[in-house]
Design a protein that fits this description.
Elements lengths: L11 H7 L3 E2 L2 E6 L3 E6 L7 E3 L27 E4 L2 E4 L5 E2 L8 H10 L1 H10 L4 H16 L13 H5 L15 H4 L7 H10 L1
Parallel strand pairs: 4-5
Antiparallel strand pairs: 1-7, 2-3, 5-6
Helix pairs in contact: 2-3
């Protein structure tokens, strides 16, 4: 039986916490007319000024102090030492290694789940992209079922993650012929037919 509901995005932070995904300088938020997106919670460019041991005239005694662009101590993004600036990127979020989709992770999963191994052996091994798409599609089907059966895949965090995604995503590759005709004269005119055949 197919489930029609999706998980509310309000509980995504719980999913993230249970799966060791750490949002340090970002959060999920509704954006103006564009749906839900990842939005920075802090200024991601900060300045750190470190003056040399000899205090230059007119320069503050700030040796070793770290300041961000909002004049707060502690955050590090750009370091100036004797007139030299270095950019240091701030961490936005941290995703554990076992949630990264890669050839290795797909292969590891196929060792755990014999049903997926059969699927991969019969239709997979075309490319990394195709194997990852097959993995996600299999988990999407699993995530939409109300009941489990012995032939179901072994659930992973991706099974639950897919429940957060909207049921309908209006991308041009899913448009009708009439709607795709609206793309004439745009950069997508050539791209969309190519990708609908793939």
């Amino acid at each position: 039986m197919v489930s029609k509901s999706t998980l509310p995005i309000d509980i995504f932070p719980t999913w993230a916490h249970l799966n060791d995904v750490e949002f340090t300088n970002a959060k999920l938020q509704e954006t103006d007319g564009k749906g839900i997106g990842l939005v920075a919670t802090n200024n991601l460019t900060a300045s750190v000024k470190t003056w040399g041991l000899e205090a230059a005239e007119g320069k503050p005694e700030t040796e070793g102090q770290v300041w961000n662009s909002d004049a707060e101590k502690g955050e590090r993004a750009r370091v100036e030492t004797h007139g030299h600036a270095n950019n240091h990127l701030r961490k936005i979020l941290q995703v554990p290694h076992d949630l990264i989709l890669s050839t290795a992770s797909i292969e590891e999963y196929s060792k755990v789940d014999q049903n997926f191994r059969q699927l991969l052996d019969s239709a997979g091994h075309q490319s990394t992209r195709a194997d990852i798409m097959m993995y996600l599609l299999a988990h999407l089907v699993l995530s939409r079922r109300d009941t489990s059966s012995p032939r179901d895949l072994v659930p992973t965090p991706w099974t639950e993650y897919l429940k957060f995604l909207p049921r309908d995503i209006p991308v041009p590759t899913m448009w009708s012929e009439l709607e795709r005709a609206l793309l004439q004269g745009t950069s997508l005119e050539v791209w969309v037919p190519t990708n609908t055949r793939a």
